[in-house]
Amino acid sequence: MILKPIDIVDDITKEEFIKNYLKARKPLVIKNMAKKWPAYQKWTMDYMKKIVGDVEVPLYDSSKADPSAPINSSAAKMKFNRYIDLIQREPTDLRIFLFDPIKFAPKLLGDYIAPTELMGGFLDKYPNMFFGGKGSETFLHYDIDMAHIFHTHFNGKKHIILFDYKWKERLYKLPFATYALEDYNVENPSFADFPALEGVEGIECVLEHGDTLFMPTGWWHWMKYLDGSFSISLRAWDKSWEVKAHSLWNLTVQRTFDNFMKARFKKRYMDWKEKKAFKNAEHALRNNLPKR
């Protein structure tokens, strides 16, 4: 893999952002955006624990997905305040994924500001938040709804590796899914076992407290928490009807079909998906795809 550093700016004008990153579909880190938010000072671990409280939350780990389970099935459950104590105390691969703590603590709504000065189309009244223990990883995937993402990190560091959507076959994308094979180490893959990964071009960055990553629609991302920490994602629609149609397909037809096949055929279906991912990757490598 060829990983290049991401573009980083302190601040950016709307004109520069739209021309160089939104229209170009290019990731960017903005250092100062969240420094204008009350959350920049307020959102400590102890504050989140106090304001959200003992809500029971689903937890996810790094184990390979159960072939018969729908995507995003949790591995365990725990009270939110106990989980925050855990990730402050010790490394763990347990993560909170797609959690909306703002529903339980609506006063958090006043602590962040959607960057409408850069673009429109923001979607969520209650944005998703993500919490992870030191060493926990988010598997390589792209977001099923194909939204643009402004991902802001708090209380630690997070390592992120990104790939343009066009590399999907070379990343061993599973058919009828928005994620890749979970059998290789994204940070240090074995090219002998996964030859199509050699030469794949990506971008990497390390987010620190208050940094905001702009991830354009369709970008693949893998994330590793370097400290017990958390992030918030603000999602915005792309103006393209083609992208919106892709989102609708993912959310309805593809996901429904995939869940049905998992439930009906379980391991047989997953084995077929993995073999097909290898065949597609080999075909893309053999034909030097994607074309630059």
Structural class: alpha+beta
Count of all domains:
1
**Helical content, roughly?**
25-40%
Number of strands: 14
* Side-by-side strand order of the widest sheet: 2-3-12-9-14-7-6
| The CATH C-level class name | Mainly Beta
User: What share of residues are in beta strands?
Assistant: 15-25%
Radius of gyration, taken over Cα atoms and rounded to an integer in Å: 19 Å
Largest sheet: 7 strands, mixed
Q: What is the chains' assembly state? A: single chain
What are the segments in which pLDDT stays under 50 over at least 5 consecutive residues? none
Series of H and E elements: EEHEHHEEHEHEEEEEEEEH
Summarize the structure in words.
It is a single chain. Helix 3 packs antiparallel against helix 4 (80-89). Strand 2, helix 1 and strand 3 (28-30) form a beta-alpha-beta unit. This protein starts with a strand and ends in a 6-residue tail after the last helix. It is globular and about 50 Å long. The protein is built from 6 helices and 14 strands. The strands form 3 sheets. Strands 2-3-12-9-14-7-6 form a 7-stranded mixed sheet, with no helix packed on it. A 5-stranded mixed sheet has the order 1-11-10-13-8, with no helix packed on it. A two-stranded antiparallel ribbon has the order 4-5. By secondary structure, it is α+β, with helices and mostly antiparallel strands. The model has no long low-confidence stretch (mean pLDDT 91).
Give a short summary of the structure.
The chain is an alpha+beta fold.
Q: What features would you highlight for this structure?
A:
6 helices, Jelly Rolls, globular, alpha+beta, 5-stranded mixed β-sheet, 292 residues
